[in-house]
């Protein structure tokens, strides 16, 4: 073979190896999501629900710490769409958060590809559509982030892993519910509770009609399973329990917990827990899985109960008899608050990294900024029924906040969110928090509403350091847990009570702070925290992606839909495959 041919081949191999190395390192996981409507009857009434790849709920994203996740989304709805990866911190990548403050929506019939890394995270979360009240019609699914093999988990490896989505449900679809809210009305009592998109098992012939499909989870006797449970509903806190089985709490939204047994646990809207459940009962019959509404008159809310079946492979009969009892405290929320306080961080366990979770001594860090964030019952603002935080009802700008910053647009938002509730009449504004990069923020949520709220912060895990009834004061800090308060992404705030969190602002971007109660969120109970590094660098924030969509003041920059343009160029699976094919082809040509 001529030396020039060998030289060409070696050069070609070097080029392809160099290109391949640019894709080396942390693995890529690829998913395709087709988001569409399907007809379903989870409560016996035919309705339109939002499915992912024809399934309701959608598939679970099963990934591992530090994986690069690529999700190509095809929007087959008749309205705009964004998918939010709730609990995924999107480190250095606020562009991928899937919320209107950071992303322009995906138009109907368009493709768009999300690409993000689950950097230094483990745990259980879920995704959902974040626009137009769509979550009330489905479109949600689980997210499981597994430990890397070299990082030990603080319990024996379970025999199986099960994802359960629970949530209140209406037989009206999201467009009807949305119209009700826009007309200034309450949604009223839900029609039921779904477990994995299915209605209740017919445990009572009077309460549950015949012909409803229910969830059955089949397990092997004597084995231990990890069961991940998310409340993906609209506004109802749910008590989760499995008849005759203990729930050993192991993890909450990315943090391993001190392991404690519960006969039942309150799971509030937007929250996720994972339990270790040993299948240690006899198989004389199946067992009930129950998710029932909390803090309500049980006799009036009997129909708002989700019931599934836990079935041993050697079961000898159907579940029968009454459901296991829920906590009996309709008017006293002390039990539920004490239960929440009992959930502690496992400071000796490794999380996503080898070092113990407790090596981050959050209790010894000086607080640099303090916000008391208060919500109240809905109010009329500018002639509309709205919800507020600190007297401000948030208005999402037509141009996303992060995009406005990128193009140095003025007047899109105000960096003037108040550190305490405003006096005077409420107002509608795009007012956001000016967070300090590498600052340490204390946020006190004061719930002056009559219903439970849960609050979520994108981009971070925060430490829940205290909660109590009454009005927070400076003296309340004396009750803070500064050692093993749980680090999570969503926390409950009881009516007439407060919850305090601490958070390290080490993630540059624009991050949503909201109630997870979908009706209140829709009506304005949110804001954003803008965290900027004064010395811009790719080390703290990745560049705007090639496939970023444009809207609002920048809408003229948007090109017509082009699948190649709409797909992110970083980590594209087809490009690497193409390199391999070309390299093999070149070798075959040379040796032919």
UniProtKB/TrEMBL annotation:
Residue ranges of every copy of the Plastocyanin-like domain listed in the record: 35-149, 161-314, 399-534
Signal peptide (from-to): 1-24
InterPro entries assigned: Cu-oxidase-like_N, Cu-oxidase_2nd, Cu-oxidase_C, Cu-oxidase_fam, Cupredoxin
Keywords attached to this entry: Glycoprotein, Signal
Pfam families reported for this sequence: Cu-oxidase (PF00394), Cu-oxidase_2 (PF07731), Cu-oxidase_3 (PF07732)
Superkingdom in the source lineage: Eukaryota
SUPFAM superfamilies registered for this protein in UniProt: Cupredoxins
Family membership: Belongs to the multicopper oxidase family.
Name listed for the protein in its UniProt record: Monocopper oxidase-like protein SKU5
